[in-house]
Amino acid sequence: MEHEKICLAHGSGGKLSQELVEQVILPAFGNPLLNELHDGASVNMAGTNVAFTTDSYVVKPLFFAGGNIGKLAVCGTVNDLAMTGAVPRYLSVGLILEEGFLMDDLRKIVESMRLAAKEANVLIVTGDTKVVNKGAADGIFINTAGIGDIISGSHISPKCVKPGCDVIVSGYIGDHATTIMAGRHELVLPATLQSDCAPLNGLVQKMLKAVPQIAALRDPTRGGVAATLNEIAEQSKTGILLQENAIPVRSEVQGVCEILGFDPLYLANEGKMLVFVDAKYTKTLLDVMHQHPYGKDACVIGKVTNESIGQVGLQTNIGGIRIVDMPLGVQIPRIC
Amino acid sequence: MPEHNNETKEMAQFLIREIDRLVTKPVRLMEVCGTHTVAIFRAGIRQLLPPQVDLVSGPGCPVCVTPDEYIDKAVAYARCEDVILTTFGDMLRVPGSTSSLGEVKATGADIRVVYSPLESLTIAAQNPHKKIIFLAVGFETTAPTAAATVLATKKQNLTNLFLLSSHKIVPPALKVLLADPAVNIDGFLLPGHVCAITGERPFDFLPETYHMPAVVAGFEPLEILRTIYRLARQIHDDQPTIENEYKRIVKPDGNPAARQILSEVYEPTDAVWRGIGMIPDSGLRMKEQYSAFDAQVVLPMVTKTIAKKTACRCGEVLRGIIKPTACQLFGKACVPEHPIGACMVSVEGSCAAWYKYGSGRYTYGT
């Protein structure tokens, strides 16, 4: 690696994150389960298929429209489990607090974690608290880990993604990152726009019940839809072609992106998922998704093809096709 | 759900057919502005155009034309204990002769990314014991905000905010390009944001002196196609003139209020452009009465810039002489993760855009 020090971009979910994992993490820890590099691992314990995942949360600001770091820490891990086709059951919570952090703020954060866990129907069963000197952390960092049991009959894996699959997004993209970004830059947003942070496991369960043939699920967090689709194209050895005019982006999000120079395809979401499913099940699946509050705006945004293997293309409104590449580094650091 | 709309596609097809009909010999059109380079790629315009119409990128990416000397100075300031450097994010990764700002930041230097120079005012007020230095780069578009920052600093009686200024103005650079026989251009897509400030008049020399078609371009896909169509018509009729395809933003006289603020603080000066060299009267320096806010006057910094020997051909790319793909480093030793030349750093740099969007006429399925 040419970098002698860690840069923010190493934590972006883009190419440099990939490089870090491939060059430092996998050589040390690599094993068949980890090498899958899925949002969570599927392990077999005492004859039961269990999904296991962990994630750390460092979002700044800690409080934002539509949520806070606590809600994010529960929803993020719940969603990672849900994306492996599991029913999330138990979470752990590790808190790293900076000396001087307001007790009131901690209470608010913990209360949102309680509410999010209740909605997601998971129990927080173990945890840890550490306090570090003032300046050694930024208020509060949270780590959560979670386990769940794999829904029987489902087989969610990028390897199941085949040409002919539709690519479905569960709703408007870019809301979370735009909200965080606007908060940081003191841009006043309309009250209609807030982070989409939400637990998706309820929706996923309904979807898998109706269509167990779903090939793959991913939540496009860091790196956004672009990074997620590039990963899937690469892992499934397929091409993906999106239709620009089908991608749901709120006009507020588009507006902020134009001011700050971002592309919504690369912005993090915290309550959205991408679904890959054989086109013959698309209608059934969309009908189910539209019944659920977190899936009511779901729509098809593209197709899996056998052209341009490993690449994501986008057909623009004027009929040209451009490549949607893997993001290099951070569009925005500390988004989750 | 977004509206599905076939009119856009039909209009695009109509314009492309007309461009094909009007242009009967190979032409090279230069988009001056880096934002256009990106917009053209994003809309997939290059591969829709008939093969006789070639688009080349010009010197309109501010980060790309900022010379090593400037980065070296910024790095030296950033290393000072009592300095907070504020900058646009793109500048962090530009390689200087010894180090980039990003590398200095990783070693603990206080460098903060801002979206407007005015954010530096708040940082200055909150850190009275620190010296805040804003890296003022950019063209006519961003220079007025930098000037407004100087005026606000004065008004708020802040004595700890300074600008390290390297602003540049576009028309003198175009004159240099046109005087170079190696640069072979048949028309210009003029930078819409710059023209929003300057108006159309500073570009009159293009048709008048150089018999060169020029159209002020907007940034929406159809605006860009209409711009190319107008250039094609001017070339076909051999009647070069200045046309404006971005009237919703660009008034013929530009923005006099912004220019007034600009000329209150700044005056023209000679400036070095990376890859091009010194161009007379192509830069802006702070007037003497505002020198108390000029980092180079108040906090003089001597740095030594080591001339680098690389095979990087940014200079030719910036002048539109070669395409990024003609550089032997492109996509091999020089990639966005590890850029060698500045054109690979900024998202609006020609090389970065070419790399990101599949090296030119990207065709899906090949």
Description:
The complex is a heterodimer of chains A (336) and B (366). By secondary structure, chain A is an alpha+beta fold. Chain A has 2 domains: 31-150, PurM-like, N-terminal domain (60s Ribosomal Protein L30, Chain: A, 2-Layer Sandwich); 158-323, Phosphoribosyl-aminoimidazole Synthetase, Chain A, domain 2. Chain A is built from 9 helices and 14 strands. In chain A, strands 9-11-8-12-10-13-14 form a 7-stranded mixed β-sheet. A 5-stranded mixed β-sheet of chain A has the order 1-2-7-5-6, covered by helices on one side. Chain A has a two-stranded antiparallel ribbon with strand order 3-4. In chain A, strand 1 and strand 2 form a beta hairpin. In chain A, helix 3 runs parallel beside helix 4 (103-120) and helix 6 (201-210) runs antiparallel to helix 9. Chain A starts with 14 loop residues before the first helix and ends in a 13-residue tail after the last strand. In chain A, 50% of the residues are buried. The mean pLDDT of chain A is 92. Chain B has 366 residues and is an alpha/beta fold. Chain B folds into 2 domains: 22-306, 3-Layer(aba) Sandwich (Rossmann fold); 314-356, no CATH class. Chain B has helices at 6-22, 34-43, 68-78, 101-106, 119-126, 143-155, 170-179, 192-198, 205-210, 221-237, 256-265, 295-298, 314-318, 350-356, and strands at residues 27-33, 53-60, 83-87, 111-113, 131-138, 161-167, 187-191, 214-217, 242-244, 266-273, 277-286. In chain B, strands 2-1-7-8-9 form a 5-stranded parallel β-sheet. Chain B has a 4-stranded parallel β-sheet with strand order 4-3-5-6, sandwiched between helices. A two-stranded antiparallel ribbon of chain B has the order 10-11. In chain B, helix 10 (221-237) links the parallel strand 8 (214-217) and strand 9 (242-244). The longest helix of chain B is centred in the N-terminal third of the chain and has 17 residues, at 6-22. In chain B, 53% of the residues are buried.
